[in-house]
Design a protein that fits this description.
By secondary structure, the chain is mostly beta strands. 2% of the residues lie in helices and 55% in strands. It is built from one helix and 16 strands.
């Protein structure tokens, strides 16, 4: 998976820095600087002329937003701290049941049933998760929509060795859409994704190296303030 919008390299927890770049047709390119440690991710983005800094602690299920000019910070809790491989830890108000293991196209997968509540109704979906890569190889949805993910070839992307995967989404009305992602075999994450409509997001200038601890700590002279409704770019905060 993409690091939840580039928030965490969950498989190996390899430390690195990179530029997260999002491009859309006829839109300015958006760029975020990332610093990834074993237990946290720091992102820096220029929003309305200000450098916005967020530090996410995935294992703890929390994040802090730093306000440098006034030396304060806000904390938010997203209640999905990673404690196991249960996919429901990433989905609110859901119940997961592992149904077994299956081999699809030579890949060992875990089959999961996920039940979510939507407007008082229980929605059941099926997901086959690649044990090695944690990618959803196949998914079934209640309306008949089916997604399948298949490897296309090995390819070099931004100087990194990757596997190119094609995701096919088939709807009951016969409409089929395709998207692509490039899975970095060294970092064990997808570092590039191309979606329909020309939407592209990727990690560039990846540098694997231990990151300084102070990047992931709130400065001691910063004061905590109450979290207010967010008004800045949600793509920066919603990881």
């Amino acid at each position: 998976m993409l690091i939840n919008n580039y928030s965490y390299a969950e498989s190996k927890k390899i430390e690195f820095s990179a530029d997260a770049v999002i491009s859309m047709p006829e839109q300015p390119v958006k760029q975020t600087k990332l610093f990834v440690s074993e237990n946290a991710v720091r992102s820096e983005t220029i929003v309305n002329g200000h450098n916005m800094i967020e530090i996410v602690y995935p294992d703890e299920g929390r994040a802090v937003l730093l306000n440098n000019p006034v030396k304060s910070y806000r904390e938010r809790v997203f209640n999905n701290a990673r404690k196991s491989n249960n996919p429901c830890e990433q989905i609110r108000n859901s119940l997961c049941k592992k149904l077994g293991t299956e081999t699809i196209d030579g890949l060992k997968t875990e089959k999961w049933q996920i039940i979510t509540n939507k407007q008082g109704r229980k929605i059941r979906t099926l997901h086959w998760i690649d044990v090695k890569r944690k990618l959803a190889i196949r998914e079934f949805f209640p309306d008949g929509t089916v997604t399948e993910l298949k490897i296309v070839k090995k390819e070099k992307v931004n100087g990194r060795n990757t596997e190119k995967w094609e995701r096919t989404l088939s709807r009951p009305d016969g409409v089929i859409t395709r998207s692509y992602q490039w899975y970095d075999t060294g970092l064990s994450i997808a570092i590039k994704e191309e979606l329909p409509g020309g939407y592209i997001r990727e990690l560039k200038n990846i540098k694997v190296a231990n990151q300084p601890d102070n990047l992931f700590n709130v400065p001691v002279d910063f004061v905590k303030v109450d979290m207010q409704p967010r008004s800045i770019n949600p793509e920066f905060l919603n990881r």
